[in-house]
Amino acid sequence: MGQTLPKPGLRPFLPDDVPLLAAIFTASIEELTGEDYSEAQQQAWMEVAEGEEFGKHLASDLTLIATIEGSPVGFASLRGNDHIRMLYVHPAVAKQGIATMLVDALEKLAAGRGAQSLIVDASDTAQGFFAKRGYTAQQRNSVTVNDEWLANTTMKKMLGAGQ
Ligand SMILES: CC(C)(COP(=O)(O)OP(=O)(O)OC[C@H]1O[C@@H](n2cnc3c(N)ncnc32)[C@H](O)[C@@H]1OP(=O)(O)O)[C@@H](O)C(=O)NCCC(=O)NCCS
């Protein structure tokens, strides 16, 4: 806490990134979501990274990777032109602007693809982050993930001129 990170960078996803992104995914769920989800829910959520679909979705969505000194520390993906599907930051660098950098970039890419608004099914952990950026809650959802029910909130932001 409090120390300044070397300047982070952004780059596109490559197929070889899948194991590292799976590790960031599981570490961020394990260490950052414990106040919002039970251990059983966290476990079910982390197991998503073990399926083949995990890498396939990262490849078929527009996935961006945040790096520090060349090493991945977080990632985010855009599905179609208007849906943020994933946003995960390694706990070692949380609260230092990495997700902000990733979502700034996705918002610009979405606007560039012609989207007028951007939608995210935000975890309870990420809801405050998205609210701060101007996303507003549309509806609460319960989704099944590996036989556990997890709540999230569909949130939406209008992409105005200048995005
Ligand atoms: C949500 C998450 C992506 C935020 O990443 P991050 O890199 O820590 O976020 P940032 O540092 O860019 O935060 C930007 C701002 O949002 C705030 N913020 C971050 N997490 C927050 C939270 N859980 N609740 C409220 N505000 C939050 C920060 O304090 C910061 O505010 P500031 O600019 O006034 O200092 C990260 O906590 C995470 O990976 N969580 C676990 C996985 C998850 O839930 N992913 C979302 C799936 S939809």
TrEMBL record:
UniProt entry tagged with the keyword Secreted: no
Domain of life, per lineage: Bacteria
Alphabetical list of SUPFAM superfamilies matching this protein: Acyl-CoA N-acyltransferases (Nat) (SSF55729)
Signal sequence, start to end: none
GO molecular function: acyltransferase activity, transferring groups other than amino-acyl groups
Annotated keywords: Transferase
Pfam families, per the entry: Acetyltransf_10
N-acetyltransferase domain segment(s): 8-160
PANTHER family: ACETYLTRANSFERASE (PTHR43451:SF1), ACETYLTRANSFERASE (GNAT) FAMILY PROTEIN (PTHR43451)
Name assigned to this protein: GCN5 family acetyltransferase
The species this protein was found in: Bradyrhizobium nanningense
